[in-house]
Amino acid sequence: MSGSNPYGQDSQHHVLSVLVQNRPGVLARVSALFARRGYNIFSLAVAPTEHPDYSRITIVVDLESAPLEQMTKQLFKLVDVVRISELDPRHSVERELVMATVKASPEQRGQVVELTNIF
Fold first, then answer.
1. How confident is the model at residue 97 (pLDDT cuts 50, 70, 90)?
2. Please, what is the angle between helix 68-76 and helix 26-37, to 10°?
3. Single pTM value for the model
4. CATH number of residue 2's parent domain
5. Is residue 20 within 8 Å of residue 31, measured between CB atoms?
6. CA gyration radius, the chain
7. By residue range, what is the domain housing residue 14?
8. Nearest to 98 by CA among 79, 73, 115, 78
9. Beta strand 13-21 with 54-62: parallel, antiparallel or unpaired?
10. What sign has the CA pseudo-torsion 111, 112, 115, 116?
């Protein structure tokens, strides 16, 4: 999808990568901040990093609800936030994940596994 905007032609969405301490309640505090301020979250994903003490929260935000600078200032007020960076969609690769149940005979299972290995 090079050159296209997955959020629409006139989209005002930005992707933020927020590095946080990997502690209980951090995601709740981040999402509560957005809710209190009335900021709209378009998409949210959380995953651990290569360092077990940190997690990365990837947030797609709607800039019509608040300016990007204001959002980042509010996020930095949270104690567990270590770093915030904006990701440029032109230099990113997006992937979706699907979980599916497939009914296959024992003879077909090898083919199914081969098909899924490319992903």
1. confident
2. 140
3. 0.69
4. 3.30.70.260
5. no
6. 18
7. 1-119
8. 115
9. antiparallel
10. negative
47-70 pLDDT per residue, tens: 999 999 999 999 998 877 668 888
How many domains does the chain contain in total?
Answer: 1
Helix (H, G, I), strand (E, B) or coil at 47: strand
Are 20 and 85 in contact by the 8 Å Cβ rule? The answer is no
On average, the pLDDT of the chain sits at 85
DSSP strands (E only) in 1-119: 13-21, 41-48, 54-62, 81-87
DSSP states along 88-119: PGGG--------------HHHHHHHHHHHHT-
Q: Is 1 helix (H, G, I), strand (E, B) or coil?
A: coil
